[in-house]
Amino acid sequence: MAVKGRLLINVFLAGLFFSSFIFLPKTALIYEIPRVWFISIWIEVLIVLSLIFGWPHLRKRNVDGLLIFAVILYGLIAAASVFSGVDPKKSFFGNYWRADGVVTFLHLFGLFFFLTLFWDRRWEEKLAAAIGVAAFSNAAFAIGNGIVTQTYPLIGTFGHPNFLAGYLVVSLPFIFFSFEKARSQDERAAWFVCALIVLLTIAVTGSVGGILGIAVLCLTVILNKENVSRFRIIASLAVLAVIAGTVFLVVQKQTGFLPEGRERIFVRGVLAFSKKPVLGWGWANFDYAFKSVDWPMKYEFDKYVDKAHSSVLEALVTTGILGFLAYLFIIGYALLRFVKDKRLPFYLFAAFLLFLIHSQTNVISISEELMFWLLLGIIAARKA
Q: Residue 372 in contact with residue 381, Cβ under 8 Å?
Protein backbone atom coordinates (compact mmCIF):
# COMPACT_ATOMS: atom_id res chain seq x y z
CA MET A 1 0.00 0.00 0.00
CA ALA A 2 2.98 2.29 0.54
CA VAL A 3 3.74 2.07 -3.18
CA LYS A 4 0.13 2.93 -4.03
CA GLY A 5 0.22 5.87 -1.64
CA ARG A 6 3.36 7.20 -3.32
CA LEU A 7 1.66 6.83 -6.68
CA LEU A 8 -1.15 9.09 -5.49
CA ILE A 9 1.28 11.77 -4.34
CA ASN A 10 3.46 11.52 -7.43
CA VAL A 11 0.52 11.88 -9.80
CA PHE A 12 -0.57 14.98 -7.88
CA LEU A 13 2.88 16.60 -8.03
CA ALA A 14 3.60 15.56 -11.62
CA GLY A 15 0.30 16.96 -12.89
CA LEU A 16 0.85 20.19 -11.01
CA PHE A 17 4.36 20.48 -12.48
CA PHE A 18 3.53 19.70 -16.12
CA SER A 19 0.23 21.59 -16.27
CA SER A 20 1.98 24.94 -16.69
CA PHE A 21 3.88 23.78 -19.79
CA ILE A 22 0.99 22.52 -21.91
CA PHE A 23 0.38 24.28 -25.21
CA LEU A 24 -0.25 23.12 -28.78
CA PRO A 25 1.60 25.17 -31.41
CA LYS A 26 0.29 25.26 -34.97
CA THR A 27 -3.30 24.75 -33.83
CA ALA A 28 -6.25 27.13 -33.63
CA LEU A 29 -6.33 26.88 -29.83
CA ILE A 30 -2.68 27.11 -28.85
CA TYR A 31 -2.50 28.08 -25.20
CA GLU A 32 -5.30 28.15 -22.65
CA ILE A 33 -7.62 25.43 -23.98
CA PRO A 34 -5.02 22.60 -24.13
CA ARG A 35 -3.97 23.49 -20.60
CA VAL A 36 -7.55 23.32 -19.38
CA TRP A 37 -7.94 19.92 -21.04
CA PHE A 38 -4.78 18.62 -19.41
CA ILE A 39 -5.70 19.91 -15.96
CA SER A 40 -9.22 18.45 -16.22
CA ILE A 41 -7.92 15.01 -17.20
CA TRP A 42 -5.23 15.15 -14.51
CA ILE A 43 -7.78 15.94 -11.81
CA GLU A 44 -10.07 13.18 -13.06
CA VAL A 45 -7.19 10.67 -12.88
CA LEU A 46 -6.31 11.97 -9.43
CA ILE A 47 -9.86 11.47 -8.17
CA VAL A 48 -10.05 7.95 -9.62
CA LEU A 49 -6.73 7.00 -8.02
CA SER A 50 -7.95 8.52 -4.74
CA LEU A 51 -11.01 6.29 -4.81
CA ILE A 52 -8.95 3.20 -5.63
CA PHE A 53 -5.82 3.69 -3.55
CA GLY A 54 -6.49 6.58 -1.22
CA TRP A 55 -9.00 5.22 1.26
CA PRO A 56 -6.52 3.07 3.23
CA HIS A 57 -4.40 6.19 3.72
CA LEU A 58 -7.31 8.38 4.68
CA ARG A 59 -6.98 9.05 8.34
CA LYS A 60 -9.74 10.59 10.37
CA ARG A 61 -9.55 14.16 9.20
CA ASN A 62 -10.23 17.18 11.35
CA VAL A 63 -11.17 19.36 8.40
CA ASP A 64 -12.53 22.90 8.31
CA GLY A 65 -16.24 22.27 7.85
CA LEU A 66 -17.15 25.96 7.55
CA LEU A 67 -14.82 26.57 4.62
CA ILE A 68 -15.98 23.36 2.93
CA PHE A 69 -19.61 24.44 3.38
CA ALA A 70 -18.86 27.88 1.91
CA VAL A 71 -17.15 26.33 -1.13
CA ILE A 72 -20.05 23.92 -1.69
CA LEU A 73 -22.53 26.80 -1.36
CA TYR A 74 -20.59 28.85 -3.90
CA GLY A 75 -20.59 25.87 -6.24
CA LEU A 76 -24.34 25.43 -5.92
CA ILE A 77 -24.91 29.13 -6.62
CA ALA A 78 -22.62 28.94 -9.65
CA ALA A 79 -24.58 25.91 -10.92
CA ALA A 80 -27.88 27.73 -10.37
CA SER A 81 -26.58 30.72 -12.33
CA VAL A 82 -26.07 28.45 -15.33
CA PHE A 83 -29.81 27.88 -15.67
CA SER A 84 -30.88 31.40 -14.72
CA GLY A 85 -28.34 33.13 -16.97
CA VAL A 86 -28.63 34.33 -20.54
CA ASP A 87 -26.58 31.55 -22.18
CA PRO A 88 -26.67 28.23 -20.27
CA LYS A 89 -24.57 26.39 -22.87
CA LYS A 90 -21.77 28.93 -22.63
CA SER A 91 -22.02 28.93 -18.83
CA PHE A 92 -21.69 25.16 -18.83
CA PHE A 93 -18.78 24.77 -21.27
CA GLY A 94 -17.27 28.25 -21.11
CA ASN A 95 -15.83 30.66 -23.63
CA TYR A 96 -14.53 29.07 -26.85
CA TRP A 97 -11.07 30.53 -26.19
CA ARG A 98 -10.93 29.71 -22.47
CA ALA A 99 -13.19 26.73 -21.62
CA ASP A 100 -13.90 28.57 -18.35
CA GLY A 101 -17.37 27.13 -17.77
CA VAL A 102 -18.84 25.27 -14.83
CA VAL A 103 -17.37 22.00 -16.14
CA THR A 104 -13.86 23.35 -15.57
CA PHE A 105 -14.98 24.94 -12.30
CA LEU A 106 -16.18 21.54 -11.02
CA HIS A 107 -12.79 20.02 -11.80
CA LEU A 108 -11.13 22.69 -9.67
CA PHE A 109 -13.65 21.74 -6.97
CA GLY A 110 -12.37 18.19 -7.31
CA LEU A 111 -8.81 19.33 -6.65
CA PHE A 112 -10.00 21.29 -3.62
CA PHE A 113 -11.69 18.23 -2.11
CA PHE A 114 -8.74 15.97 -2.93
CA LEU A 115 -6.45 18.25 -0.94
CA THR A 116 -9.00 18.63 1.84
CA LEU A 117 -9.01 14.86 2.32
CA PHE A 118 -5.42 13.91 1.60
CA TRP A 119 -3.13 16.91 2.18
CA ASP A 120 -0.22 16.12 4.48
CA ARG A 121 2.25 18.70 5.79
CA ARG A 122 5.05 16.32 4.83
CA TRP A 123 4.21 17.20 1.22
CA GLU A 124 5.16 20.85 1.72
CA GLU A 125 8.75 20.78 0.52
CA LYS A 126 7.91 18.60 -2.48
CA LEU A 127 4.98 20.84 -3.40
CA ALA A 128 7.11 23.99 -3.16
CA ALA A 129 9.90 22.38 -5.20
CA ALA A 130 7.49 21.23 -7.94
CA ILE A 131 5.95 24.70 -8.28
CA GLY A 132 9.31 26.46 -7.96
CA VAL A 133 11.05 24.38 -10.63
CA ALA A 134 8.01 24.70 -12.92
CA ALA A 135 8.06 28.49 -12.53
CA PHE A 136 11.80 28.66 -13.19
CA SER A 137 11.48 26.41 -16.26
CA ASN A 138 8.64 28.51 -17.65
CA ALA A 139 10.63 31.69 -17.02
CA ALA A 140 13.77 30.29 -18.68
CA PHE A 141 11.74 29.08 -21.67
CA ALA A 142 10.04 32.46 -22.01
CA ILE A 143 13.39 34.27 -22.03
CA GLY A 144 14.94 31.81 -24.48
CA ASN A 145 11.93 31.89 -26.78
CA GLY A 146 11.87 35.68 -26.63
CA ILE A 147 15.52 35.87 -27.65
CA VAL A 148 15.15 33.35 -30.50
CA THR A 149 11.95 34.83 -31.92
CA GLN A 150 12.77 38.41 -30.90
CA THR A 151 9.35 38.62 -29.28
CA TYR A 152 8.52 41.26 -26.71
CA PRO A 153 6.80 41.27 -24.30
CA LEU A 154 7.52 37.72 -23.18
CA ILE A 155 4.62 35.27 -23.32
CA GLY A 156 6.31 31.87 -22.86
CA THR A 157 3.89 28.95 -22.92
CA PHE A 158 1.02 31.17 -21.74
CA GLY A 159 0.34 33.23 -24.84
CA HIS A 160 -0.08 36.50 -22.95
CA PRO A 161 2.38 38.47 -20.77
CA ASN A 162 -0.17 39.03 -17.98
CA PHE A 163 -0.95 35.30 -17.80
CA LEU A 164 2.76 34.46 -17.59
CA ALA A 165 3.53 37.20 -15.06
CA GLY A 166 0.57 36.29 -12.85
CA TYR A 167 1.55 32.63 -12.68
CA LEU A 168 5.18 33.48 -11.91
CA VAL A 169 4.29 36.03 -9.23
CA VAL A 170 2.05 33.61 -7.33
CA SER A 171 4.80 30.95 -7.61
CA LEU A 172 7.52 33.17 -6.12
CA PRO A 173 6.71 32.45 -2.42
CA PHE A 174 7.19 28.73 -3.11
CA ILE A 175 10.68 29.45 -4.47
CA PHE A 176 11.53 31.54 -1.40
CA PHE A 177 10.28 28.73 0.85
CA SER A 178 12.49 26.23 -0.98
CA PHE A 179 15.42 28.62 -0.61
CA GLU A 180 14.88 28.80 3.16
CA LYS A 181 14.56 25.01 3.43
CA ALA A 182 17.69 24.30 1.35
CA ARG A 183 20.02 21.78 3.00
CA SER A 184 23.26 22.95 1.40
CA GLN A 185 24.90 26.07 0.05
CA ASP A 186 24.74 24.69 -3.49
CA GLU A 187 21.00 24.12 -3.15
CA ARG A 188 20.50 27.61 -1.79
CA ALA A 189 22.51 29.05 -4.67
CA ALA A 190 20.37 27.12 -7.16
CA TRP A 191 17.13 28.43 -5.67
CA PHE A 192 18.61 31.95 -5.58
CA VAL A 193 19.29 31.74 -9.32
CA CYS A 194 15.75 30.42 -9.87
CA ALA A 195 14.33 33.43 -8.04
CA LEU A 196 16.45 35.87 -10.05
CA ILE A 197 15.39 34.34 -13.38
CA VAL A 198 11.72 34.43 -12.40
CA LEU A 199 11.97 38.03 -11.18
CA LEU A 200 13.74 39.06 -14.39
CA THR A 201 11.10 37.36 -16.51
CA ILE A 202 8.26 39.10 -14.69
CA ALA A 203 9.98 42.44 -15.25
CA VAL A 204 10.53 41.76 -18.97
CA THR A 205 6.89 40.78 -19.52
CA GLY A 206 6.12 44.44 -18.94
CA SER A 207 3.06 43.40 -16.93
CA VAL A 208 2.13 46.17 -14.50
CA GLY A 209 0.25 43.65 -12.36
CA GLY A 210 3.28 41.36 -12.25
CA ILE A 211 5.68 44.14 -11.30
CA LEU A 212 3.20 45.33 -8.67
CA GLY A 213 3.13 41.76 -7.35
CA ILE A 214 6.92 41.80 -6.88
CA ALA A 215 6.64 45.02 -4.86
CA VAL A 216 3.83 43.55 -2.75
CA LEU A 217 5.83 40.39 -2.08
CA CYS A 218 8.92 42.36 -1.07
CA LEU A 219 6.85 44.50 1.31
CA THR A 220 5.14 41.42 2.75
CA VAL A 221 8.45 39.63 3.34
CA ILE A 222 9.99 42.71 4.98
CA LEU A 223 7.01 43.18 7.31
CA ASN A 224 7.08 39.50 8.22
CA LYS A 225 10.81 39.69 9.02
CA GLU A 226 10.03 42.63 11.30
CA ASN A 227 7.49 40.41 13.11
CA VAL A 228 4.54 42.48 11.94
CA SER A 229 1.36 40.48 12.45
CA ARG A 230 -0.41 39.01 9.44
CA PHE A 231 -3.46 41.11 10.25
CA ARG A 232 -1.40 44.30 10.04
CA ILE A 233 0.18 43.11 6.80
CA ILE A 234 -3.29 42.70 5.31
CA ALA A 235 -4.38 46.10 6.67
CA SER A 236 -1.26 47.77 5.27
CA LEU A 237 -1.84 46.28 1.83
CA ALA A 238 -5.50 47.33 1.94
CA VAL A 239 -4.51 50.94 2.69
CA LEU A 240 -1.93 50.90 -0.11
CA ALA A 241 -4.55 49.47 -2.48
CA VAL A 242 -6.92 52.36 -1.69
CA ILE A 243 -4.14 54.89 -2.25
CA ALA A 244 -3.06 53.23 -5.51
CA GLY A 245 -6.66 53.09 -6.72
CA THR A 246 -7.15 56.78 -5.95
CA VAL A 247 -3.95 57.74 -7.77
CA PHE A 248 -5.02 55.60 -10.75
CA LEU A 249 -8.39 57.36 -10.99
CA VAL A 250 -6.77 60.80 -10.74
CA VAL A 251 -4.22 59.98 -13.45
CA GLN A 252 -6.89 58.48 -15.69
CA LYS A 253 -9.06 61.55 -15.27
CA GLN A 254 -6.16 63.76 -16.34
CA THR A 255 -5.18 61.59 -19.32
CA GLY A 256 -8.75 61.24 -20.53
CA PHE A 257 -11.29 58.45 -20.86
CA LEU A 258 -10.27 55.20 -22.58
CA PRO A 259 -12.98 52.99 -24.15
CA GLU A 260 -11.01 49.87 -23.12
CA GLY A 261 -10.02 51.20 -19.69
CA ARG A 262 -10.62 49.48 -16.37
CA GLU A 263 -12.97 52.28 -15.29
CA ARG A 264 -15.36 51.50 -18.13
CA ILE A 265 -15.24 47.73 -17.47
CA PHE A 266 -15.96 48.27 -13.78
CA VAL A 267 -18.82 50.74 -14.24
CA ARG A 268 -20.49 48.74 -16.99
CA GLY A 269 -20.12 45.59 -14.91
CA VAL A 270 -21.80 47.17 -11.89
CA LEU A 271 -24.59 48.64 -14.02
CA ALA A 272 -25.15 45.26 -15.65
CA PHE A 273 -25.30 43.63 -12.20
CA SER A 274 -28.14 45.96 -11.27
CA LYS A 275 -30.19 44.41 -14.09
CA LYS A 276 -29.75 40.85 -12.78
CA PRO A 277 -28.87 41.24 -9.09
CA VAL A 278 -29.80 37.86 -7.56
CA LEU A 279 -28.05 35.15 -9.60
CA GLY A 280 -26.39 37.35 -12.18
CA TRP A 281 -25.96 36.86 -15.90
CA GLY A 282 -24.73 33.30 -15.60
CA TRP A 283 -21.31 31.77 -15.14
CA ALA A 284 -18.83 32.85 -17.88
CA ASN A 285 -21.36 35.31 -19.33
CA PHE A 286 -19.60 38.58 -18.51
CA ASP A 287 -19.45 39.46 -22.21
CA TYR A 288 -23.26 39.55 -22.40
CA ALA A 289 -23.40 41.75 -19.32
CA PHE A 290 -20.79 44.14 -20.70
CA LYS A 291 -22.62 44.52 -24.02
CA SER A 292 -25.93 45.20 -22.28
CA VAL A 293 -24.84 48.61 -21.00
CA ASP A 294 -23.85 51.68 -23.00
CA TRP A 295 -21.61 53.78 -20.78
CA PRO A 296 -20.65 56.54 -21.01
CA MET A 297 -21.93 56.40 -24.60
CA LYS A 298 -22.77 53.94 -27.36
CA TYR A 299 -19.88 52.99 -29.63
CA GLU A 300 -20.35 51.87 -33.23
CA PHE A 301 -17.48 49.39 -32.96
CA ASP A 302 -17.03 48.57 -29.29
CA LYS A 303 -14.29 46.56 -27.63
CA TYR A 304 -15.17 42.93 -26.86
CA VAL A 305 -14.70 42.16 -23.15
CA ASP A 306 -15.36 38.59 -22.01
CA LYS A 307 -13.88 38.81 -18.49
CA ALA A 308 -14.21 41.38 -15.74
CA HIS A 309 -10.44 41.74 -15.11
CA SER A 310 -11.33 41.21 -11.45
CA SER A 311 -12.37 37.92 -9.85
CA VAL A 312 -14.59 39.74 -7.34
CA LEU A 313 -16.39 41.77 -10.04
CA GLU A 314 -16.68 38.62 -12.14
CA ALA A 315 -18.44 36.85 -9.26
CA LEU A 316 -20.77 39.80 -8.72
CA VAL A 317 -21.85 40.08 -12.36
CA THR A 318 -22.02 36.39 -13.31
CA THR A 319 -23.43 34.88 -10.07
CA GLY A 320 -25.21 37.90 -8.60
CA ILE A 321 -25.25 39.06 -5.01
CA LEU A 322 -25.57 35.48 -3.73
CA GLY A 323 -22.44 34.26 -5.46
CA PHE A 324 -20.62 37.50 -4.68
CA LEU A 325 -21.26 37.17 -0.93
CA ALA A 326 -20.28 33.49 -0.94
CA TYR A 327 -17.05 34.25 -2.81
CA LEU A 328 -16.21 37.15 -0.49
CA PHE A 329 -16.85 34.93 2.52
CA ILE A 330 -14.46 32.30 1.17
CA ILE A 331 -11.73 34.89 0.68
CA GLY A 332 -12.35 36.60 4.01
CA TYR A 333 -12.50 33.35 5.94
CA ALA A 334 -9.29 32.09 4.30
CA LEU A 335 -7.52 35.32 5.31
CA LEU A 336 -8.88 34.92 8.85
CA ARG A 337 -7.48 31.40 8.98
CA PHE A 338 -4.07 32.68 7.89
CA VAL A 339 -4.19 35.38 10.58
CA LYS A 340 -5.25 33.09 13.41
CA ASP A 341 -3.61 29.79 12.48
CA LYS A 342 0.19 30.05 12.53
CA ARG A 343 0.37 26.39 11.50
CA LEU A 344 -0.39 27.68 8.00
CA PRO A 345 3.07 28.67 6.68
CA PHE A 346 3.92 32.21 5.70
CA TYR A 347 4.75 31.28 2.11
CA LEU A 348 1.18 30.02 1.57
CA PHE A 349 -0.14 33.25 3.10
CA ALA A 350 2.05 35.32 0.75
CA ALA A 351 0.95 33.29 -2.28
CA PHE A 352 -2.70 33.79 -1.36
CA LEU A 353 -2.24 37.55 -1.01
CA LEU A 354 -0.47 37.76 -4.37
CA PHE A 355 -3.26 35.83 -6.05
CA LEU A 356 -5.91 38.11 -4.56
CA ILE A 357 -4.12 41.26 -5.66
CA HIS A 358 -3.21 40.11 -9.15
CA SER A 359 -6.63 38.59 -9.86
CA GLN A 360 -8.29 41.95 -9.09
CA THR A 361 -6.24 43.76 -11.72
CA ASN A 362 -6.03 41.29 -14.61
CA VAL A 363 -7.63 38.37 -16.39
CA ILE A 364 -5.86 35.25 -15.11
CA SER A 365 -4.89 31.92 -16.64
CA ILE A 366 -6.15 28.51 -15.52
CA SER A 367 -2.68 27.86 -14.03
CA GLU A 368 -3.06 30.84 -11.70
CA GLU A 369 -6.68 29.93 -10.87
CA LEU A 370 -5.44 26.44 -10.01
CA MET A 371 -3.18 27.94 -7.32
CA PHE A 372 -6.18 29.56 -5.62
CA TRP A 373 -8.03 26.27 -5.25
CA LEU A 374 -4.85 24.49 -4.22
CA LEU A 375 -4.34 26.98 -1.38
CA LEU A 376 -7.99 26.74 -0.30
CA GLY A 377 -7.73 22.94 -0.20
CA ILE A 378 -4.64 23.10 2.02
CA ILE A 379 -6.41 25.52 4.38
CA ALA A 380 -9.52 23.33 4.56
CA ALA A 381 -7.47 20.20 5.29
CA ARG A 382 -7.07 21.28 8.90
CA LYS A 383 -9.70 22.71 11.21
CA ALA A 384 -9.10 26.11 12.77
A: no
